[in-house]
Each structure stands twice: as C-alpha cells, then as structure tokens.
Amino acid sequence: MVHFFAYVVVTAFITLTAAQLECPGGFSLFESYCYFIGKAGYDFYESRDECDKRHSDLVTISSTEEREFLKSLLKDDAAKGVWIRADRVGRDRPIPLRLGLNKGLSPDVKCETLSKRRDWEREKKDCDVSNGMKFVCKTRSFARTCTRRTCFTLLPGRYYQSIGQMTCEDLGGSLASIRSKRESKVVKEYLDQVSRLENPTYQQRPDKNNRYKLLTTLP
C-alpha cells in the first residue's frame, strides 16, 4: 500500500530557536509561499513540466499583494507575457474560456497570462500555447526548527515514500527518527506552530525489522 504524507527532514549541528519559513533554492519567499521565475522560451506545457520538476505548480494569483510581489520579481525582458494558471481550475480540465491551456484544446483559444503592457495585470486573450514565454512556479514554503544538535523540516505536500526519501536527501537530510523525549517535545511544538497544515504526519526511519511507522501524532 502506498501512503501520501508530509515528511520531517533531519539535518545536524544547526541551532535555531524557533520554526522559520524557508524556500527551495532559486525560489523567493512571500508570506507562506515560494515563487520561481522561469527563463523565457518555454511554451505552456513545457512551463508546467518545469514547475513539476521543482515540485511546484504554475502560479495562481489570489490577491493584489501577491500580484505586486510578482511584479517586483519580473523583469522588463518578459514583455511578451508570463505563463500562469487560472484560479481554482484543474490542471487538465477543459475550460477553454477560463484557461484555454489544456490538452486536446485548439491552440488559439482564450488563455490567461500576466501582461507587462497592462502593468502585470492578468490578461485573457487569444494566444498560442506554443508561444515561448517566461513562467512563474508556486509552492508552499517549509518550516524548520532545531534542538541543540538536530534540525527538523516539515515538507508540505504529498509524497510516495521513495520520493520523500530522495527529497530529504536532496535537502541534505534523511527521514526523521525521534530519539528522545526532548526531540519529541520539540517536534510536537513545531507541528503545532505549523497550523496551516491540517493533520500533519511524519515518517520515521525503519526499525530493525525494516518496518516504517506512519505517525499522525507524536508519542
């Protein structure tokens, strides 16, 4: 059986006093989300794939503040537009009047981009999904907290066990193993702080019988 859950990553010999939000390399933090500006020259599907490689999605814009933040990141050389994703629209749902960027649709239907000529306002227009443009990826930030010798990072999202292990290793850590009451207390308080994640879970490293423990609460 395959489980989906969030992971705690363990790294060593870093001392922080409280949980703080961080982003993957190359991403910029705004509130509780991280943003990546991709290079120009990608069509819509390539842009979406590039975001997938970074464990993120094409950005959806939910507030004026978020739009202003993105405006500050975008450069003048993105004058052709920037690929984004319409609000609350499934990535492969055929809703051409709202998005027009889904598989099986005609290339010249209505689509949504960020337009520099309109001061980076969202713009719906006739466009070709094969146009090469910049793109913006968005993902949740992750939080980190530390004891004297060990740091714990909770990664929001859903991962297969094998992908979760590789993700932890990419960050220079491993799947968490709680070895003391102090660590248990620190991680419990940490999970309580990350209130934006509902029912967070974490995966311990296998025991001597190579069995994984999927925990929804700390012992």
Written description of the protein model:
Keywords: Signal. InterPro entries: C-type_lectin-like, C-type_lectin-like/link_sf, C-type_lectin/matrix_domain, CTDL_fold. This is C-type lectin snaclec-2. It holds the Pfam family Lectin_C. By secondary structure, the protein is of the alpha+beta class. The protein folds into two domains: 5-21 and 143-215, no CATH class; 28-139, Mannose-Binding Protein A, Chain A. It contains four helices and 14 strands. It has helices spanning 44-53, 64-73, 161-170, 181-193; strands at 5-12, 20-22, 28-30, 33-42, 57-58, 82-83, 108-115, 121-128, 133-140, 142-146, 150-159, 174-175, 202-203, 214-215. Strands 3, 4, 5, 6, 7, 8 and 9 form a seven-stranded mixed sheet that branches. A five-stranded antiparallel sheet has the order 2-10-11-1-12, with helices on both faces. The radius of gyration is 20 Å and the shape is elongated. It starts with a strand and ends with a strand.
Please name the defining characteristics of this protein.
single chain, 219 residues, alpha+beta, Mannose-Binding Protein A, Chain A, 2 domains, seven-stranded mixed β-sheet, five-stranded antiparallel β-sheet, 14 strands, elongated, disordered N terminus, disordered C terminus
